[in-house]
Give the backbone structure.
Amino acid sequence: MPTGLNGQARKVCVVGAGISGLRAAGLLVAAGFDVTVLEARDRIGGRVAQSSRLGLPVDLGASWIHGTKANPIIHLAEKAMSTTLACSDVRSICDSNGVWLSADTARGLYKKLWEILELAMHKSETEAEFLPDSAKMMDFYREELDRRCLEAEEPETYRNLMLQIVEMWGAFMGNDCETQGLKNLYLDAGLEGDNLFIASTYKDIVSDLRQQVSHHAAVHIDCEVTRITNRRMEGVEVEAADGFRDVFDDVVVTAPLGWLKRNENVFCPALTPEISTAIRSLGYGNLDRVFIKFPEAFWTAQDSNTNGYHGSESEKIRSPVFPIESIYLRPTYAAETNPAEWRQEIISFSGLPKQFSQPIIMFFAYGQWGRHITGLVRGMAQDCQEYYRILDDTFRPYYSKLPNYDPASSTCQPLEIMSTDWQNDKFAGFGSFTNLPAGSGDCFQHFEALRRGMGETRGVWFAGEHTSPLGGLGTVTGAYWSGEQVAKQIARRCNIDIDV
């Protein structure tokens, strides 16, 4: 049993019961530490949460497993008997005039897009030390695209489509793709393999992680930490808004980067300059969701020849169900509600495995568009008529482009609408996940500073997707890895090896 300053079992406080906090707490409990978990919300899971308001549960936050190669979340999903669906190349793209490209055309353009992005990743990885901090991914993309346009049959059309499709990168960073830096882009590279959508949600995975903790650790919910103070040789004192106060040998802070940006004053003495610089320099994006439920999935009918859908007959036979993921390019047809022509991206829940299929279209809303959407209805009851009217007016230009839409049919009128607002959630740090905009400095050094924390000198450590090893930034996998990483660091100080 690892012992602390008082000769008893070494006490560790884990601040936050999200994925990283649960993983760290579970490993430390198993290694013999006396663990207390403090969670500010009235539930566990952090930015992983579900709602059943529209019927079957849906994920309000994280809903993907990013990459299948050497990804520990795959094992967790299998253990929890979760149902996943592979989503690789996008083959469903609606152009700026509201016409659907053929599946072959869409797939080909998407493949070419990733060829250029992979070149950008390679340049970032091999030349990072020579690239200026101001270098942007999109500048590289445009240069490479111009070169390829010389070989295109219709160069202007090709260039226009490729410049619009690349805007999908904004969903990966929760901001406008024009803000993405090139110098640190390699740090955002994900794991190899398909991206898996978790049809059954993350609920069972989180439940399994909690089981590893709840029977052997003290878990406090509705317990918002307000102060973390080093008491010289007396350990680290943690205070919470509900009156909780205790002293620990080690404290693991798993609060999101966005929370850290607004709450450096919680730490006494102040954070080290390296950690403070890292927190202030890294970006933090926003990604919200709007779920629209219909009486039935009118867009999945076999006869999908309406609205300019150009898929071949053979494609319809092979894929009779509307694709899971679709992209709308800059819409010129929604000037009244979207004059800036922000692009859209949707997930069709009707294409999920039968037991999880629902007549729901989910829209992603991020960056400026996300801030605009959440601001329109913030503070409104989600079952009130005005909330429904505003969001229906806003998103009708897009769902009306789906196959078989008929404005006179009740089947095509939404029954209910639900939206998230992570941007107004202080415990989420008023956002969703870490990103790497131009002007961030040397992000490798920033991540190293956060991963080291102040554990060796002050017993204060950090975990979360913003401290992930390479391949996990901004993902559940990264959060999980970071929990393992910090647990190993703490155990190693007590000459204990944690084998995962």
